[in-house]
Amino acid sequence: MKNQLFKKKSVDQILLDSETKGSGLAKILGVRDLVSLGIAAIVGAGIFSTIGLAAFNGGPAVSMLFVFVAFACVFTALSYAQFASTVPVSGSAYTYAYVAFGELFAWIIGWALVLEYAVSNMVVAISWSQYFVSMCEGFGIHIPKWLTMAPGYAIEAHQKMLDVGAENLTGIDRIALQAYETAPRIGDMPIIFDFPAGLITVLVTMLVYIGIKESQRASNIMVIIKVGIILAVILGGVFFVKPENWTPFAPNGLGGVMSGVAAVFFAFIGFDSISTTAEECKNPQRDLPKAMIYCLVICAVLYVLITLVLTGMVNYTELNVKDPLAYVFQYVGFDNMAGIISVTSVIAITSALLVFQLAQPRIWMTMSRDGLLWKKFSTIHPKYKTPSFATIVTGFVVAVPALFFKMDFFVDLTSVGTFFAFILVCAGVLYMDKSGLSKKSKFKVPYVNGKYLVGLGFIAGLVLMYLYGQDSLAEWKTLGASEVILHKSLVLVFWITWLTLSILSFKHDFSLLPVTGILINLYLMSELGASNWIIFIIWLAIGLLIYFMYGYKHSKLRENTVSE
To answer: How many CB atoms lie under 10 A from the CB of residue 397?
Structure first.
């Protein structure tokens, strides 16, 4: 059994299967299309909504957090690019883990990618709904409140009203209370759901089902529109910037800045999604590495500039709003621009929804080909040349929770799954270097010998912690053993991993860049709450149950091993 769980797929076999069996997918994507899809995925709900909350918590210094997270993503993107040039098939990190670590890790990553793509799309759909409702109200169209939000908001608002009185409710609570009071009822239960979120998911799923070519065209158009409006915000907003708004630069210290990790990282999720389209690329080994780096650099520059402009136009304390880009122009009296941004935001978030809805079915399709999921998931539509059944299932998986769940439930959870996948991809490059697989890579992560540098970095980190982390160390001394396990265990894992990598780097001359990618992603993971990790562990447990009930028995790799 152990041999089966950790048995790896060879690159030659994966490529041979892809060529002989044929994917049935249409090969039409070039570098420009891939960059467009990457920007479509990255520049979505993150920059149009969660960026406001991050700025509210961290102040103008959040712009530096964008630089830091982009820096982390560059190391990961280089690792993805090397794998994409070596194994140019659909499957993304799932396929890469199968090559580097074996079947069990491949399944775990594939299951975690459901969180990155499907669950993050729930956030995107809910965010789209908020902007769409605001846009409609701008045109004088008022959708009933009970049709525009998750029931949890309304129930919480009703409880607050009972506790403090309706006159003391503000903002979203006042709107949610209105939804609770005006909703039709079945008995005493109000009927409340987010209809626009479900509707846009269904419409985008239909577009993805029809074909990659149609999806690519729609994505290209939407990307041109939203990049144009972001440039307009940057260039137009510069004239309203007041430098005094950048003081203090980090009002809540490092803790305030890092509290926005999940929101900021969510804004970057998506650059890896283009690796799922490898079998629809004209020349994946050449084009995928280029596209990943291009779209990441472009988006990082846009994010930093727009964060500086937003926090320069208004004080950071004003930015805890769901539509920060539109809000800042309303704040300075430029209402026409605010209206244009609201309309454009709907288009921008739609494009992000489209790319994630495109990526998830292709992960399931690849897992199904390997026998780890039911055969139906690998069905290719004879006319549209898309993974038809997997696309329909993805539509249901995203649409139903988007109708009924709150956005903040999903944001951190999405980041946990993504960090996990990123770390394994970076670690996979180290395996490729040691096993000689890197010789087959047409693109390689630049090699910098980490023999001494990783260990020196570890020592420097300890020194800096001692010199500048006394507040954090004092907090540790006040915690009991159970509190340390619950709230600080990931910090311990981070330092233990760094020490272990220092030793292994000294012994095996590990490449510095993938190691740096592992450490930065693990550090960012340690900043997420323990509750997210508990949910993630439960999610993995469910996934492992499915694997051992179905995937282990039906694995094509296992069947081939037995027949041999």
So the answer is: 19
Torsional sign, CA 300, 132, 313, 235: positive
| Residue 369 in tokens | 């080909």
- Asked if 49 and 127 count as a contact pair (C-beta separation under 8 A), the reply is yes
Q: Which two tokens stand for residue 306?
A: 């727009």
Return the domain boundaries, the chain.
2-130+196-403+411-435, 151-192, 441-563
3-state secondary structure of 391: helix
Can you give 449-469 as a three-state secondary structure string?
A: ECCCHHHHHHHHHHHHHHHHC
Q: Which of 34, 120, 90, 93 is nearest to 385 (CA)?
A: 90
Q: Which amino acid is at 358?
A: L
Cα–Cα dist 267/281, whole Å: 25
> Does the bond joining 248 to the residue before it have cis omega, within 30 degrees of 0?
yes
Q: Report the run of H or E that residue 189 belongs to, with start and end.
A: strand 189-190
State residue 404's pLDDT score. Answer: 85
Q: What is the mean pLDDT of residues 557-564?
A: 60
Query: Among the CATH numbers 1.20.120.530, 1.20.1740.10, 3.40.1110.10, 3.90.79.10, which is that of 2-130+196-403+411-435?
Result: 1.20.1740.10
For 186-204, what is each residue's pLDDT tens digit? Answer: 888 888 889 999 999 999 9
Residue 505: per-residue pLDDT: 94
521-537 burial: b if 16+ Cβ within 10 Å, else e: bbbbbbbbeeebbebbe
Residue 546 has pLDDT above 80, yes or no: yes
Residues 68, 294: contact at Cβ < 8 Å?
no
Contact 405, 486 (CB under 8 A): no
Cα Rg, the chain, nearest whole Å: 24
CB 343 within 8 A of CB 135: yes
Measured on CA atoms in the order 317, 321, 325, 327, is the torsion positive or negative?
Answer: negative
Here the tokens at position 366 are 């690849």
Alpha-carbon distance of 237 to 247, in angstroms, equals 18
- Calpha distance 135→341 (Å, rounded): 9
| Cβ atoms of 377 and 387 closer than 8 Å | yes
Q: Do residues 267 and 51 make contact, with C-beta atoms less than 8 angstroms apart?
A: yes
Rounded Cα gap, residues 156 and 4, in angstroms: 49
As given in the structure block, the two tokens for residue 17 are: 């299967």
* Number of helices and strands in the chain (H, E): 28, 2
A 10 A CB-CB count for 141 gives 9
C-alpha distances (whole Å) from 124 to each of 114, 407, 544 are 14, 9, 27
Taking the C-alpha atoms of residue 514 and residue 48, their distance in angstroms, rounded to an integer, is 31
The reported pTM is 0.79
